[in-house]
Design brief:
The structure is a homodimer.
Chain A lengths: L6 E6 L3 H12 L1 H8 L3 E7 L15 E2 L2 H5 L6 E4 L7 H10 L3 E4 L2 H17 L4 E2 L11 H7 L5 E7 L2 H13 L3 H10 L8 H4 L2 H15 L9 E2 L7 H9 L2 E11 L5 E12 L11 E8 L3 E8 L3 H21 L13 E2 L6 E11 L4 H11 L4 E9 L2 E8 L2 E2 H13 L3 E10 L3
Parallel strand pairs in A: 1-2, 1-4, 2-3, 4-5, 5-6, 8-10, 10-13, 10-18
Antiparallel strand pairs in A: 7-9, 7-11, 9-10, 11-12, 14-16, 14-17, 14-18, 15-16
Helix pairs in contact in A: 1-12, 4-5, 5-10, 7-8, 13-14
């Protein structure tokens, strides 16, 4: 039974993702209509540069007045692919007030203001869907908030930024330094002209906030996420990782504490064993591990960015939201009932790989080991390498809190025999 | 806003999966209530052996009369984890008639009678969900029918049977023969006393039918799926695979033909390159690759069987179905609008690895090559190995239709110089 009055879609933004959404809406119109139960019609496209030629889009649909578009009153679904905080935020809340549901790919906005946006959606009895905000085409939001709704998620561990994974993979496979690998990523279009959001971990942190919020049914904001970029990862770190049978990835890690009452969310480079499935995620691909009580370990893998994959996620949401509209229902909204404490980084418990430059004389190892013991950090292995009065000491710890490790490192720096702390890297995925 | 009248759930079957569903419904009652918006109550459990002690289940809920339970009229959701065709089929259709929605884990029934069951659900305006029927805890049905609803799926390629993957992995890693590996799988509980459904590919074929139907929006029945078990895979095949940089997996493959107008579904052992992500899926794990127009290659990985993982999938569906009931809506039903032709195996196009025992004399290779050429099957590589008047010839072809390959092999068998066709194996994942 096909309804003939079309559902009207307003597209905000017509860049790499938006133009692909518009294209697929046109080329796959029949399929979308069959899957939704009614045709969908592109009712308007808000852009910044109206003069740009946009193949396949009726020029009469183009407008620079996004506000007027969302206020038209006859729009069923607003697709927001502008990105950034404003004007996206105001446009989305206005859309709800004027009767539309919203599909967004805006991770920064969701991570910062997810709760307020969900509240606005709920107040107006509308849907807010955002599969495309995390890990591009990989179905992740929906599996977490629907498929695993009957399970208890304990950990989400993932590679959620393709740019940094491309750079780290390049460093690992060719021995290139960070700058060289970044230059190649830029030349190939994997890194933006200003790569800060990627390499400093802001992009991954926004995704971690969204994932943690859904996984733990708890509000987790961007500010709650500990963040460390990957600009200080060196070729020497990769050599150390190799010695341990590991590689280095920039990971987003959302964990429930062992007592179950608190959670943490963090983004930082970490060593993971080569045998871990995340170790073999190459190039700009993304992959996310989800560990839960009943289902054990699940992994979701695919292209984490790009116009087409992101458009696929947007359109999957569009179909769901349109179906909801036809049946007069709404999908799952914010689920924050658990309201767990989001603990600071100091409470995170993990393993550490620490490289020290030390004086090459007897008793140094004993001194260093004493400092670890005094801070309650148990040592797993130590490797010494010395030449010409200089030596390096590589310590791998058992699981310890970040606070204990930080205290240990501060005390180590005060030892006369420790010339410097060459690197500290967390070890995950075991 | 929590509704206080509970939703009533009838559980049909209380074996490995059912008892785990009941357990989680009890231990996670508060979480489920918060996620659904109303409490869920176990209203009855139909079993075959009422005398068995079932820890944590109120004995007054136990009944042997499943029919009376689904006919009670106050049941909101029937969870069917009995398996098999009857009485499961009649119980499910009765449940719809008496006003319940249904969550099922029954792959055999869905593959055989999915269309009729969907029709019964639709006629009564009820939900039929079955995430647990394919690949255990791995969210796959929902991503395919919802997340990728705006995309065009071209291929689904997966390891969907844990028992056979355990056996093949064991043969690959230890050099064991088939029987030895099967014995170990049985001893460890990975294979059932009668392993026919697994090793002959019936289980995987049922899953392939379900996946193909959803992926291509076309009815695909179990009978439409070409099926070849893995009992004839030998240690010699693994040695040949290794020579090619491959391993052997039992794959379920659902493909859209290049012209887009027809699809195929098949289950058989195949060589795949060691570099393919499916090659590293170990033990009893499952993994499914999905290739689509916009999203590219996605992979879903996790435990494919077992009580807890399957229960996780059942409960995810239960939450969705309960939410739908509260909002008075239903989720996506059968989507078969595309109604593509399901082509026979002869139309499948792939590559082949063929081992021939031949006479060790001049001219044999020329004869063999002529037969391939006459049937339009192009040869990629040939390797000859001879000793004591006997020789083996290993031919790897370019892509050719199954019909052309079958014709080639028939003609080869008629050559005087070909003593036997030692093995034919498809090569996939390139």
């Amino acid at each position: 039974m096909m309804r003939t009055r079309p559902l009207k879609v307003a597209l905000l933004g017509c860049g790499v993702v938006g133009s692909e959404v518009a294209r697929i809406m046109t080329t796959h119109a029949d399929d979308l209509a069959a899957r939704i139960g009614a045709p969908v019609e592109l009712a308007g496209v808000a852009v910044r540069r109206p003069s740009k030629v946009r193949e396949g889009i009726d020029p009469s649909l183009i407008t620079t007045d996004a506000t007027a578009l969302v206020k038209r009153g006859d729009i069923d679904v607003v697709v927001e692919v502008i990105g950034g905080i404003e004007p996206a935020r105001t446009l989305i809340t206005t859309a709800f007030e004027y009767g539309a549901s919203v599909v967004s790919a805006n991770k920064a906005l969701l991570a910062q203001d997810g709760a307020a946006l969900h509240a606005a959606a709920e107040a107006n009895d509308k849907d807010l869907y955002y599969e495309a905000a995390v890990a591009g085409a990989i179905p992740l939001i929906r599996p977490l908030r629907e498929s695993l709704a009957g399970d208890k998620v304990n950990r989400v561990l993932g590679i959620v930024n393709g740019t940094t994974n491309f750079i780290l993979d390049k460093m690992d496979s060719t021995g290139a330094g960070y700058q060289e690998a970044l230059d190649e990523a830029t030349a190939l279009g994997y890194a933006e002209a200003d790569p800060t959001a990627d390499i400093e971990g802001f992009d991954a942190a926004a995704k971690a906030a969204i994932l943690a919020g859904i996984a733990f049914h708890t509000r987790v904001r961007l500010d709650d996420v500990y963040r460390e970029g990957m600009t200080e990862v060196t070729a020497a770190d990769f050599a150390s990782a190799k010695n341990m049978g590991c590689t280095i990835k920039l990971l987003a890690i959302c964990e429930r504490a062992e007592d179950g009452a608190s959670v943490t969310a963090r983004v930082h480079p970490a060593m993971i064993p080569l045998t871990h499935p995340l170790a073999s995620v190459r190039g700009a691909y993304n992959a996310v591990f989800v560990e839960s009580d009943a289902s054990g370990q699940l992994m979701f893998y695919g292209p984490g960015a790009g116009g087409s994959p992101t458009a696929s996620a947007v359109l999957g949401d569009l179909v769901a939201v349109c179906r909801n509209r036809l049946s007069g229902a709404t999908g799952p909204g914010e689920s924050a009932y658990a309201a767990l404490t989001v603990s600071p980084m100091g409470d995170v418990v993990t393993r550490y790989h620490i490289s020290l430059d030390v004086a090459d004389k007897p008793g140094v190892l004993a001194q260093v080991a004493t400092v670890f013991a005094e801070h309650g950090v148990s040592i797993d292995t130590v490797r010494q390498q010395g030449k010409d009065g200089e030596a390096s000491l590589v310590v791998v710890t058992h699981r310890a809190s970040d606070a204990a490790l930080t205290g240990t490192v501060e005390a180590l720096r005060k030892l006369d025999t420790v010339r410097g702390v060459a690197s500290i890297m967390r070890v995950e995925g075991e």
